[in-house]
Amino acid sequence: MNNVCISGRLTKDPECKELNGGKVVCEFIIANNGYRKDDTMFVKIKAWDNRAKSCSEHCKKGTLVNIMGGLRENSWKNKDGVTIREKYILASDIEFVSRPEKANKDSASSSQPETQNPSNSSDNDVEAPTQEEMDAVPF
After folding, report:
1. pLDDT digit string, tens, across residues 44-99
2. Helices (DSSP H) in the chain: which residue ranges?
3. Residue whose C-alpha is closest to residue 110's, from 118, 121, 102, 99
4. Cα 48 to the chain's mean position, in Å?
5. CATH assignment of the domain containing 17
6. Contact at 8 Å (CB) between 75 and 12?
7. Global pTM?
8. Which residue range is the domain that position 78 belongs to?
């Protein structure tokens, strides 16, 4: 059995491509934090077709996502004949937990009351990262 469940924030906006035949693939990397700051793990995620389209619409750098899927590996030889191996998670389900706050939120919404995003309403609410935290991601 090959099942993976992982949560993390996108390190940059997802890269989506439409391939011949109309198939869509979306790739992105999430940062998964450990107990200590230096335990952060960066994991490549790939999504296809409808999941890929959803990612391109709803995700950007800093978005918190829960990913369910399977661990996969691609291998190929580069132009020098060296075998390159790439491990990634092929997403079978993606949950968009939260979106990053806009940098100019204070000026845009100072006169409006804050409303909670329905996708965030759960017993396990996660506090959105500050702009400094999002900029600290090395990608």
Report:
1. 999 998 999 888 888 999 999 999 999 999 999 999 999 999 999 999 999 999 87
2. 49-58, 105-109, 131-135
3. 102
4. 14
5. 2.40.50.140
6. no
7. 0.67
8. 4-100
